[in-house]
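Quarterly update from the structural biology core.
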Amino acid sequence: TIDHGMLNLWRQESERRTLYLLDVRSPAEFEAGHLPGSVSAPGGQLVQGADDWIAVRDGRIALIDDTGVRANMTASWLKQMAHPHVAVLENALQGANLETGPAPLPVTPPTVPGVVVSDVLGREGEVTILDLSHSLTFYRGHAAGALWTLRSRLAEVLVMIPEDRPIVAMDDRAGALAAYAVADLQGMGRDDAVVLTGGLAAWRAGGGTVATGLEGMLTAMDDCYHLPAELVDDPAQADRDYIAWEVTLVDQLERDGLLTFSPLT
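Predicted structure, tokenized:
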């Protein structure tokens, strides 16, 4: 565990030693009040998808919650996952000046030309909508007719994109990631590239048609590891099936005669 004094020291050293300040409570609790500079990373999701939050293996990780219970449980798992510098912040929220609402973006996207949804609706056949979202987000819902790729592969897919149609780049992060892609595309000679302001959420709210599935993917879905249950028509039912299997696992072991320990009751 660390106290606020040690956290302040870690903050001061964060330019030379990466610091992750992760709030493991629910997103609703986070938005109701959180430490400035912290990021919402619900404990269960953090353990199952640590690479969504922790990019540097040897960085410092400080975990926050209201009682310490969830933070300690999450820290225990992260330690077992070979993250060596994990600490729980003692009395994390007591007497602290808290911020409300979602955390701001950690970086400021570049300033690039943009359009709003109403500028694109009805012109889908005249522009190329290029989606830079998480691949699973694209799979589950994207602008109809959109193409998908990773920002790191823009150079190799540019030959697959029609030259006579302006590029409208979008994402599931309100346009923040797409703005970087637009800057990259302009550097590659595509001065007609613009960002869709508000991203996927704005597209949905503006009445844009949403499609699902793999159609439109220009490159492999290898931006992250996908659980088998995520790539099915009904992921919620797949999750329920998994939980049902897990709950009855002890009974299955007993029937198999392989149980060599006493389960906790």
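The longest helix spans residues 235-247.
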